[in-house]
Write the structure tokens for this entry.
Amino acid sequence: MRNYLSINDIDSLPDWVATARDLKKNPRQFDSLGRGKTIGLLFFNNSLRTRLSTQKAAMNLGMEVMVMNFGNEGWALEYGDGTIMDQGTSEHIKEAAQVVSQYCDIIAIRAFAGLKDREKDEAELVLNGFKKYASVPIVNMESSVGHPLQALADAITLSENEIDKKSKVVLSWAPHPKALPHAVANSFVKMMQLQDADFVITHPEGYELNPEITKGVRIEYDQNKALENADFVYVKNWCSYSDYGEILHQDGNWMMTKEKLGHAKFMHCLPVRRNVVVKDAVLDSEQSLVIEQANNRTYAAQVVLKKLLEN
Ligand code: CP
């Protein structure tokens, strides 16, 4: 594996999950693997979990870590070929990626969708720019269209909670006051396509995800019907994909409650807005897996970094 950019870079999800679960038992068992190596974490957007868990994973492997809030501390980047840079951008991605490659053995990047221009977001200018011009491996810490470290952590959490082929997993849209990207939902769908389980997506009409990603997955517009006999319910907001970046409505009836959850386990990537996305009674119950999902972010990142270092 040269880079970890999407779920497609996972060659065997069961093997990766097993490795992560083994690392979790003894996180520092490979602490000489990264000795003398440096990872650079470049953030174009905010983070709590990704920033700290990726740093922790790198430290568990003996790596040095450099973190930069590129979005507000770096020079504004230019991405176009042949651009006359007489406007707001100060540095071209060609130099930036090559320069960071001199300091780092692995570069991890977070750059969210702008949610204004779908074509531009799907071009993944930051991630693909670094992939093209950097001379070291690139890790996606959430890009416009995917959050594969989160989805790998979710797979670890499902495994620990004994998902099997009889399990029913529901991805349920939730209301939110801000337009949020599709990245978490997209990667969760792609990860679930690698699982042998009954998987259903439920959302109001108009909130369909990219049909290329959901191809072959059951979509149920009736949330109550989708939730019948669910074992795991993953709740997440995303904005409209077809009416790109728009909030079509914020129907509070889609918020997850104890009654709707039934006996299922509750999952969310965090951060989460209490009593908008999900009721306190769910988050504070023993059915909630959110803290363990966040814990598993360390071991998801550690599997990825271990594989890149071994290469
Ligand atoms: N789930 C997740 O990526 O959290 P952060 O945005 O806090 O990193």
